[in-house]
Amino acid sequence: MNEEATSVDHAARWDEMYSERDQHWSGEPNGALVAEVADLEAGTALDVGCGEGADAIWLASRGWQVTGLDVSAVAIGRAEQAARDTGASIDWIVGDLVDSVPSGQKFDLVALSYPALPTASASESVGALLEATAPGGTLLVVGHDVEGSDHFRKHAAERGFDPDDFVQPPDIAARLDNGWTIEVNETRPRITPPGFDGPDIDDVVLRARRGASPG
Fold first, then answer.
1. What DSSP character marks residue 148?
2. Distance, CA of 171 to CA of 134 (rounded, Å)
């Protein structure tokens, strides 16, 4: 199967998942994102895998100029509606991280919550994440504690996916060279939204700052 066909299948799978219900996520921003971004000066932000838009809308409410990206057209449609309902101005992109972010465009914040980047294209997608982060900018990745939770693996299997098929925060941390400063790299209890009834799984939080350009 060629790379283009794989990307189409990936998008179709997420469209199918979102179409199973009218709203898939809570509508509240990710607690780790809120905690880690609160002390940052607002600038440009790229929300990778933005889903139904809660994180992007929260960032916009804090003064960020936000671009939300997701492979699922269904998710982006809901995000657009949610943004209209709140009056948030956000640029939305339906597409893959590698192919859909304009070449050379940099962001002061690149955020990725519970990544769904296939390991089959990890080299390209992680490279695109790092490249999209502006000099002096922040990369924030929040994932599930896959290695520390057999319960999560069981939960994932029941939903028909294998966490090992997707890039995890340690995979991204391993790609950070001496041009990056890792500010946070830890496992912590997840901050769950009100009414959350999912599995109790810790977060893995990676926050890194890219070195400023010389001169």
1. T
2. 20
> Tokens 């199967």 correspond to what residue?
1
Residue 65 in tokens: 């100029």
Give pLDDT, residue 25.
61
Nearest to 70 by CA among 85, 87, 56: 56
Residue 70 located in a structural domain: yes
Residue 37 backbone phi and psi in degrees, to 5: -95, -15
Which range marks the domain in which residue 62 is found?
Answer: 3-22+29-210
Residue that is written with structure tokens 């179709």 in the block: 12
Instruction: Tell me the pairing of strands 203-210 and 133-144.
Output: antiparallel
Q: Is 193 a member of any domain? A: yes
**What confidence tens digit (pLDDT) does each residue in 4-16 have?**
445 567 788 876 7
CATH of the domain at 158: 3.40.50.150
Contact 145, 187 (CB under 8 A): yes
pTM equals 0.87
Predicted confidence (pLDDT) per residue in 148-166, tens digit: 556 666 666 666 667 777 8
Residue 53 lies in a domain: yes
The C-alpha atoms of residue 138 and residue 40 are separated, in whole angstroms, by: 9
Structural domain tally of the chain? 1
Locus of tokens 């090992």: 164
- The whole-angstrom separation of Cα 128 and Cα 124 is 6
- C-beta separation of 183 from 109 below 8 A: no
Tokens 């900018």 map to which residue?
137
Residue 144, strand partner residues: 203
In a domain, 215, yes or no: no
